[in-house]
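FAQ: What does the model actually see?

It sees only this:
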Amino acid sequence: MKPADGRRTTLFWCHPCNVPLIGPICGKCSRAGTPVRLSPPGDVRLALEGTRRRLRYLFLRDFGVQHMIPDIMVLNKTSGEDRADEVIVDGHRIALLTYDLEKSGYSLTLRIDGARMLASWDSKKMIRLNKVPGHLKGNYLPPDSIQSFDRGIKAGDEVVVQMGKFIGCGTAKVDAQALRNASKGVKVRDISQDGPLRPGKRAWTRTLIRANTPHLIANKARAEHELRDAFKRFQLPVSVSFSGGKDSLVVSDLVSSVTNDFSTIFVDTGLEHPRTIEYVKSFASEKGLRLMTAHAGEAFDENFDSFGPPAKDFRWCCKVCKLAPASELIEKRFPGGTLTVEGNRRMESFSRAHTELVNENPFVPGQMTVNPIREWTALDVWMHIVWRGLRYNTLYDEDIERVGCWMCPSALASEGVEIARISPDLSKAWDARLRDWAEEVGLPDGFVSYGFWRWKRLPPKMRDLSERLGIVVAPRRSDTVNLRMVKGVSPCTAGGYSIDAVVAMPGSMGLEAVAEMLKTVGEVDLVDEFGVAVVDTPHGRAKVFAGGQISVVSPTSEEARTLFDMVARSVLRGTMCTSCGVCARTCKAGAITIGDTLTVDASRCTRCGACADSCVVAHYFDKVAGGLDGTGTPRRKRR
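And it is asked to produce this:
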C-alpha cells in the first residue's frame, strides 16, 4: 500500500521476538520481519503509557479483558472526524480507536484479529452460534442460529461472534433480550476461519532496541552525514529549532553528535503549555545548550479581536506569535544568516509531504533550514528516543500527540479534553473566550462545544456532523473574509477588460493602510475626499474604495486577472496587517518600514512581490476568501 507520493505504508514485525521493526530484518534474531499492512499515511508510533492506560480501560469496559494490551505496541494514525488510530498488538491490527465528537468519548471498533484475540480470552460480548449455512460476512445473524450470548449486550455494542473455528466481529443492533427474535439483531462485519489468536510472548524494551539497533544506527549515520555536508556547504552559524516536541528532541541529539558549536532557538508563543516551557528550560540546562528564546509576549491577545480564533485553514497565530518573533531574533542574533536544523517530517502532514533536505525559509529572512529526519516515521523518532535514553516532554505520557501550542486549532478535540483534565484553568479560560466571541459574532453555542471554530471553511466531515446534531452552521465562519464578485472578467465598452468585486473584512484598519500596501503593486493616488485609492500599473488601473469595492480595468483578460489577484491580496494584507515585520525583513530594497503602522517607500519599492510571497496572511488568502476572479481560472503566483 502506497500513498500518492510513493512512501511505504508497511510496518515490519518480528513475531519470534514480538516487537515492531523499522527495517525488514530483526537485529536480534536475524529473521525477516512479517509485513503489517497499514492505512495511509502509515506514520506509526509507539504507544506510550497514557495511551496504553486508555486502551486497557476501554477493553476492560467493553469486553472485560485488559491483558491483551502489552507494554510494547504501536498505533497508526488514520483518517476520521477526530482521533482515529489503528491499534496494533503482536503484529496484528486488533481495533480502531476513535474519538466521537458527537458523544464526546472514545470507542473501539474491532478488527478481525482483535475478535480472534478476545475469543481466546473468552471475553464479554460473545455470541456463540450453531452452524449457519451460507456467508456471514456483511450479513445479519439468523436469530435461530444463536446458541448463547452475553446478557449484557446493548444496541450499538461491538460483539464477537464464534461458530466453531470461525470467529467474526460485528455490531449489535438490539439489546440482548431481543437477539433471538430480531431478524436484524447483529450485523457481521468480518469473519475468519483461523480460530482464536493467542497472545504473543511478552517483549521487553531491551529486546525492542536490540531488534532495531542496526536500523537505528543506519538512520543516525545517514542523518549525521547529511548534517555534516550541509554545515560544510553553507558555512553559516548553526542553530537548532527546539520546540519541546519529540522531533526537535531527536534533531538536537543528532546535531550534538556532529558539533558542539550551535545555538538552540525556542519560540515562546505565549501559548505554550507550562510543562513544555519548563521542559525546554530544564533540558537546555541539563545538556548545557546555548538557549535563545524568542518571545511573542501578548501578541495573541492583541490580535484576537481583529482575527478571531485561529483556524486550521487560517493560522494567523503562527505569523504573529511564531514567525515574527523568530524573524526578529534571527535578525538580531544572526545578521549574516543561520542554518537552522528542524525536525520536519514528510509524514506529518500534506503540507510537509515534499520537504527537502535544505530549504530557504520564505517567512524568516536569513534562515536556511535543514531537515535531516524528513523521511522518518514517528516510530523511527520514538525508537531513537528510547535507544538514546533521551528525556522527553511528559505531556506525551498524557496521551497527547502534539505538545506545541496547547489550544492549537490543528490539535485534535480529544487532545483538548486531555488538556482540560491536566490544566483545567487554561481550558476554562479559553472556552469562555471562545463563547464570548461566538456570541459576539452571532454563532450558536454548539459552534464552540463541537469544535466548529477550528475551521474558517468547514470540511465535509464537519458539515455532516452539524447536520446530524441539528446545529445550523454556515459553511464559512461569519468572521471570514467575504469576497463577492459583482462582475467577472468582461469586455469594457471603452476598450479592455474589467473585473468588479466587493470585499468585506472584519477588523478593517482603513483605506490608508490598504493604500500603503497597494504601493507594492503600482503608483497609488489616495483621494480622501472620495474615499478611493487609485493604482496605476503596467497591467492597467485599479480602484479600491473605502467601502471595500474593487474595480480593475486592463488591456487584456489575462492582465485583468493578474492585476485583480495582486490588488485583492494587497487589500487583505493592508486590512489584516499585524505589523509582524516579516515583509520588512524580506524586502531587499528596504522599502518597508514598521512603526505604529506599515509604510512603503514607493521610490525604493521594485514591486518584486517578495513581501507578498513572505506574508502569511496572503499565503492563506485562497482558503480564507475563496476564488478571487470568479471565473474558475487558476491564478498565477507573481514572482
